Amino acid sequence: MPVAIFLTILSISFLSAFAIQRGEERQAAAELDNRTAVIASALERRANSSSAYLRAGAALLATLDEIPASRFRRFVSELRLDADYRGADGIGWAEAVRPDEVAAFNARLAAQTPGVTAIYPSLAANQPLAVPVTFLQPDTVRNRRALGFDMFSDPMRRAAMLEAQQTSRPTASGRVVLRQEAGGSAPGFMIFMPVFEPAASGRQLKGFIFSPFKAEDFLASALELEGAGRYGVRIYEGKPTEENLLARVENGVAGEGNVARQIVPIANHPWVLEVEAEPQSGLSIFSMTTLVFGLLAGLMLTVFIRMLTRQAIEDEQALNWFEEQASIRNSLTRELNHRVKNTLANVLSILALTRRRASNLDDFADSLDGRIRALSATHDLLTKSDWGTTPIRSVVEAELVPYAQEGDHQLDLNGPDVELAPNDALSLGLAVHELATNAAKYGALSAPGGTVSMRWYLVDACQVRMEWQERGGPPVKTERGRGFGTDLIQKIVAHELRNPVDLRFEKEGVSCCLTIPVRERGAFAMRADREQQDAGCRQG
């Protein structure tokens, strides 16, 4: 029950933490989408502001027959550019120059622009016109690097100018490196607005008013309107790859968080805005607090219930123990009565057979004394084991201990560890005593060099086979009368072991084979714990 309650509370805590975490993740995703929309709006506002100035400039320049440097500087100053135009490198004018007008344009360029003598690069053979940077305000060292550059020679700029000419709208170029960078690689872009003049066929391209932008500055100016906050911001010209990257503001975001993307139209040209949230590691504080609180509550409740349960179990165990002790006392009383009767019955049988076979009082007393001592030795072993199981080796060694110290003969004991029930141990002890006594009087233990081999092995899980064999003693008479030992082994022992005894008096020595049952401990151990009882075969 405590485990079930703890698991239930733990499951509820995990589900609650999961629900809270999912809610916070959805809220974070909504905030990310909202921030993406706000930044996209700021980018569009910056681009639209620049496009508005270019539209105004195009309308003004279309009314002028000629556009000298002084007039253009005055025009730019009259625009009164404010903060909305931040992020651009300025406003420029690029005159449309046909091949037959190149020489005249170069002369004017050299006269108006110190250090610049001609359009570069030179027009290609099939190039219809050139669009060189004629003026670029403000007049800075950086902007002067672009003067005279034919923007129509660059495919990216040319594509934007052709589209602007066709649509008569401000049009942004793709990713380019501005001439102002002087060999640098910082990406930028340009916005072109065409300027037309009346012609016989309708209208003719006069040139382009344009603004160059360093992409990083443009993004920074847009983020001044709507800050990036804790998000990383990247803008791409087309597919969001490293090659198409225009500008980025990381804000410590390493590229492993959630990303929101939105297409932003910048002067008739699509950009991809990518806003990335800071990666969230593990559970939020609220989710972790919920989970920890649930665990603590579950542990406290589990410990409390466990204490109550343990107390109930201990009370029940105490009652069971008292009942078991009462049952044990009753059982021990019955068992003691039964075993005393068995022992007395064995003593009476031994007494009767001894008296019948004894020829005088001394023989009777000696035979009776040895057999009673054999019973006593086995009883000592059973008492030490609390009348539980007794190893075969211990029973055999207890009966053969008087002969083990003599050096003129040899005892060979060999077999596995097998435990015997109390009554079976008593019967085996009597049998070994009779065999050893006979061997000491007439057999292998009566002469120097004699050998007694006693081996046992498991026939199966329910029986053990024991073999006694004597060699090296005096020759044995094959024809002889039955003695008390023979009757004791073949009658009393065989009856107690419930298996016949094979006793043979061969010329080389006596051999005896006994089959002893291996009983389950619970069949004779009154105080055995059922959970610790040995597995075995139950014999009736």
Automatic annotation (TrEMBL):
<dbReference type="InterPro" id="IPR036890">
    <property type="entry name" value="HATPase_C_sf"/>
</dbReference>
<dbReference type="GO" id="GO:0016020">
    <property type="term" value="C:membrane"/>
</dbReference>
<keyword id="KW-0597">Phosphoprotein</keyword>
<dbReference type="GO" id="GO:0005524">
    <property type="term" value="F:ATP binding"/>
</dbReference>
<dbReference type="Pfam" id="PF07536">
    <property type="entry name" value="HWE_HK"/>
</dbReference>
<keyword id="KW-0808">Transferase</keyword>
<feature type="domain" description="CHASE">
    <location>
        <begin position="63"/>
        <end position="224"/>
    </location>
</feature>
<keyword id="KW-0472">Membrane</keyword>
<protein>
    <recommendedName>
        <fullName>histidine kinase</fullName>
        <ecNumber>2.7.13.3</ecNumber>
    </recommendedName>
</protein>
<keyword id="KW-0067">ATP-binding</keyword>
<keyword id="KW-0812">Transmembrane</keyword>
<dbReference type="InterPro" id="IPR006189">
    <property type="entry name" value="CHASE_dom"/>
</dbReference>
<keyword id="KW-0547">Nucleotide-binding</keyword>
<dbReference type="GO" id="GO:0004673">
    <property type="term" value="F:protein histidine kinase activity"/>
</dbReference>
<dbReference type="Pfam" id="PF03924">
    <property type="entry name" value="CHASE"/>
</dbReference>
<feature type="transmembrane region" description="Helical">
    <location>
        <begin position="283"/>
        <end position="305"/>
    </location>
</feature>
<dbReference type="InterPro" id="IPR042240">
    <property type="entry name" value="CHASE_sf"/>
</dbReference>
<dbReference type="InterPro" id="IPR011102">
    <property type="entry name" value="Sig_transdc_His_kinase_HWE"/>
</dbReference>
<dbReference type="GO" id="GO:0007165">
    <property type="term" value="P:signal transduction"/>
</dbReference>
<keyword id="KW-1133">Transmembrane helix</keyword>
<keyword id="KW-0418">Kinase</keyword>
